[in-house]
Amino acid sequence: MRFETKAIHSGRQVDKTTSSVTMPIHLSTTFERAADGSYPNEFVYSRENNPNRHVLEDCLTSLEDGHDSVAFASGMAAITSLIEALPADKPRRVIMPSDMYFGIRSLLSDTDIGTNFDFDIVDMTNLNNVEKAINRAPTGLVWIETPSNPLLKVTDIEAVAQIAQEAGAYTVVDNTWATPVLQRPLRYGVDFSLHAVTKYIGGHSDLMIGAAIAKSDSPMLANLRAWQHAKGAVPSPFECWLALRGVQSLAQRMATHCSNTSAIADFLVHHPSIEAVHYPGLAEHPGHHIAARQMSSFGGMLSFQVKGGWDASMAVAAKVQLFTRATSLGGTHSFIEHRASVEGSTTMAPSNLLRVSIGLEHVDDLKEDLLQALE
Ligand SMILES: *Cc1c(COP(=O)(O)O)cnc(C)c1O
């Protein structure tokens, strides 16, 4: 089956007991055991597994061309579990990209993850930095985020995966911004593709789930499954059901997100009030050629810097009418956000940077809104 078909059918069938076409939401926390002690449908207790989560995991595995998936209560729960699931025989040292999702920075600075592991944070757009970091000390895990938050930096997945593999380190790609429609990291030798399902896969800003999709069986995958069962940061059946509803239109939504964003990038590049536009679809973006090779299109996220600094960019965010001033991304509504003021004193975001998640509205309405806000 092709992607669009798998997104709708994978793991799902007409319900045998009721003939309902959409899968029921199984809220039951526990499942009956047969007289002989067996579990006729293999489900025992909802934290360990439940029908809605099971189908979502199967669907994500299929969409990423993976071996297995493990779903968690949020993207951050999946990220935490991935780092902690590093097998005990691996060095507790992780190489991370310098431009990355801000929640990971908080994880390192505010929790014991930051002290239980050594982190080496480097700009991975330059492969020399990755080589140097790998040679500095034995490494267990290399974390890739591409395109990255909030500067849309592009990392060569295949090249970094190869460097990591030669050093015996596991690799993860945070594939949230690209989605499996545009980028399949497991094809390039990466061990895990990670998603904040919260974003594009859910697609409607109304659920929170994270998932890691594994390329193959491994001690780390076994740990991850054990962490899910035993530590218990699991998504609810209802949210899994919502994610399965959202994923059915993922390919079609991404096509519109990409074409809208590309048109907005072209328009912003030529606007006199704009200092810089960060979008890998632009020919002048430093990662354009790598993105063109490893992605089928350039995504629905872009950021831009407004001439005049902090105040000028805040003024643009204040004047938009159609864009919603909100954090997060990947929904049907367009969002705009001044990252530096959201992230606080430890921010690495330029003070005049606005990040936008381009939604599914008509592109001309979005352009007109930005035009009046930039006046
Ligand atoms: C949102 C996001 C996360 C975290 O997901 P949550 O569901 O909010 O915990 C991780 N990585 C990226 C790139 C994200 O955009």
Automatic annotation (TrEMBL):
Any GO molecular function: methionine gamma-lyase activity
Name of one Pfam family that matches: Cys_Met_Meta_PP
Alphabetized UniProt keyword annotations: Pyridoxal phosphate
SUPFAM superfamilies from the UniProt entry: PLP-dependent transferases
Known EC number: 4.4.1.2
GO BP term, pick one: cysteine biosynthetic process via cystathionine
N6-(pyridoxal phosphate)lysine PTM positions: K199
Known catalytic reactions: L-homocysteine + H2O = 2-oxobutanoate + hydrogen sulfide + NH4(+) + H(+); L-methionine + H2O = methanethiol + 2-oxobutanoate + NH4(+)
Superkingdom per UniProt: Bacteria
Record-linked InterPro entries: Cys/Met-Metab_PyrdxlP-dep_enz, PyrdxlP-dep_Trfase, PyrdxlP-dep_Trfase_major, PyrdxlP-dep_Trfase_small
Record carries keyword Transport: no
Residue ranges of the TM segments: none
Annotated signal sequence range: none
GO CC, one annotated term: cytoplasm
Named cofactor requirement(s): pyridoxal 5'-phosphate
Cross-referenced PANTHER family: CYSTATHIONINE GAMMA-LYASE (PTHR11808:SF15), TRANS-SULFURATION ENZYME FAMILY MEMBER (PTHR11808)
Family: Belongs to the trans-sulfuration enzymes family.
Protein name: homocysteine desulfhydrase
